[in-house]
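Quick one: structure tokens for this chain, please?
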Amino acid sequence: MNRLSRRAVLAAPLLAAPAIVQAQAPVVSRTARILAGFPAGGTVDVACRLFAERLRGVWAPQVVVENKVGAAGRLAIEELLRSDPDGTSILITPASMVTIYPHLYGNRLRYSPMTDMQAVTPVVIYPFALAVGPGAPNVNNLAQFVDFVKSRNGISYASPAAGSVPHFTGVMLARAAGIELTHLPYRGAAPAITDAIAGQIPATINVIGDQVEHHRAGRLKMIAVTSAQRVPRFPEVATFAEQGYPDLTADEWFGAFLPARAPTALVQQLNTALVAAANNAELRQNLAGREFEAYTSTPADFAARIGRETTKWGPIVQESGFRPED
């Protein structure tokens, strides 16, 4: 083994110094903010903070998360639209605000996802699970769940929010199975799961990550997942497709957006920065612990996906007859 002389060791930092000086400067020279439409500590906020950490010093000298909470996530989008298109304001939002809300709110929606925002890339993707609690004893799969619902001439199910993907997943299941399911919206996953565990409501549809600990502990039983394949950490839970409901294969993403007036070159630069962040092993591990998967695409592919999903949800929302109050 070659040994360095004391002089060489002392010179090493000086030799490395030019590389530090020549490091690429951040794309944006001022502090940037990531807008989150939901409270601190929630899944959207957590994802925003993980990506903010990886963008710091790369995208901007400082990247902070700003929680613009209200109107079921719409306030954060409206804040983005008022922002300068210089890359100092980035929105990360769930798919529902972009693909479902146009059908729910119509002319009441104060933004157009396809014209007022620049799609940059999705950043994470995740499935949902249908779970039952003590209020649905001896139900271990979808066939038994359907029989259980029919035997009671219908039941209620909980979701974390009205107008969410879990809400309309229940609508799709009721239509596909020919059963009566009454939706009960909650203010977030935690209270919905709490009532299911207490037996006050038989079933709930939520993000898998919000239910896993209760499933492991036996307080809840996940009986179907919306992913295309079984979740590796829970191979005992079959997909909806495996159990005869292929149309209920679905997932949701959190996606990054800039104002519509942002230059194309800036959109591409942010895409590159977010793709690099998503490939970071530590970030991917942190996401996996929440049953999220890092997921990115080109801006063009992301915009095309938004268009397809917006078209998909239109007839489902219309058939449900649901109209939000706010």
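The chain has two domains: 32-126+252-320, 128-248.
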